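Changelog-adjacent note: as of this version, every example in the card shows the full chain rather than a window. The one below runs 502 residues end to end.
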Amino acid sequence: MRLEDVVSQSMARWPGRIAVVHKDRSWTYAELEAHAASLKKKIGETEFSEGDRILLWMENSAEYIAAYLAILGLGGVVVSLHPQVPVSEVSRTIRHVGATGLIVSSSIKQWTAGDFDSTDLRFILKEDELIRRTHSGPVMRGPADLAQVIYTSGSTGQPKGVMLSHRNLIANTRSILSYLCLNENDSIMAILPFVYAYGNSVMLTHLMTGGKIVIENSFVYPNLILDRMLKEGVTGLSGVASTYALLLNQSNLKSYSFPMLRYLTHAGGPMPSELLRRLRSSFSDKRMYVMYGQTEAAARLTYLPPEVLDLKSGSVGRAIPGVSIKVVTEEGGIARAGEVGEVYATGENIMQGYWQDPQSTAKFLEGGWLRTGDMGRLDEEGYLTLIGRNSEMIKSGAYRISPTEIEEVLLQHPGVQEAGVVGLENPILGEVICAVVTPNQGQLPTDQELLAHCAQRLAPYKRPKSICLVAALPKSPSGKVLRQELREISRASFRTAVRTTR
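Full-length structure tokens:
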């Protein structure tokens, strides 16, 4: 079965129900289906062929969802990019994935058709304007059943195109629906970009179950998000750690009550224990799901049921239905309970591979298992605790140190809103620990105060050597902290700290 067929069942079953709310307009499932059909007709007027990749350069909107469904309905492959990415990245992606079409939002202004002359685009579609283009050369073919290519955020290097099949996306969506117990009466506050795996799964779960998607693309004024949640009576909120940190620190959250809100989900990176504690305190009567996943898994790998949040503190839960997890030691054996190793996963949701990158595909897919690159351990009951990314572990002296542990200690300080920790090259220790911190609104702790705070709570080899305060941590559009940029900030801060101690 194909993904668009599953969504079409919702459209046929609930044509009059509200599917999307965006700005001042509500779209029913019938209206969404009609708009998708109109786009299919326009694209069909071009030289489109089944299996062609079409790039969506759009913000979250009903138009995005309709375009997504139209491409799949024609037998095409969706490739999406965030509206904030520059034209140069759009061109690079078009060339890399061999896209034949581009659908662009009218809100994106800084481009011209000439910007894409170096590509083999056959058409550009902007609202009702169809720009036909000449092209040359054969079109690359992708694997059978390919539905979507999602580019990883590229926080540590060039983004890779993750190939997800219809089977991958359907399996993952149905698994999420089963443990969140979603139905047609549910609605979601959609603030995560649909162009990334987490936001994509939020979109698909609600389309598949006939629910309502309430879209808000601006997080500059978090109180407006809360107002919209209350007005629309949303039952769910999904976010990353920075989403919840912003709500807790820069909104009037304490003055709100959400009688219709049923649950919250978190994924997309570590959830510091102090942030989780504060979040649960603010939403004490709501179900909180801590989750873990990767783009390569069509989003989700594990979830921690709300009932065991305290019992399994620090864990990201057990494998979702249809997925198996194992931990592999450096020697290649299966780790014992409590032993740390690399997390592997298998299931119908695991990607087909990386687009035009057989070497990376062979490296990360081994005998049907995905090598996640994350370090963790399983307990006797199969609950997974993550230690950190293998590439992000700090090697200082004889120790391997997780940056997450130090970040959590920093977040226990009342003056800290967010913290990022990295290792910097050092000729004696291998790496030294440096931290970058965002202060809470109205507070400005000194670096010496924060260093003293860490000295009271961390072993000497885990203490940062320098702490730099910044207005905001560098992040990708998906909300992930950019570790390489943290390192650049830390290098300058560490050099200053060394000079002042001489």
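Structural remarks: Residues 394-500 form a domain with the GMP Synthetase; Chain A, domain 3 fold (CATH 3.30.300.30).
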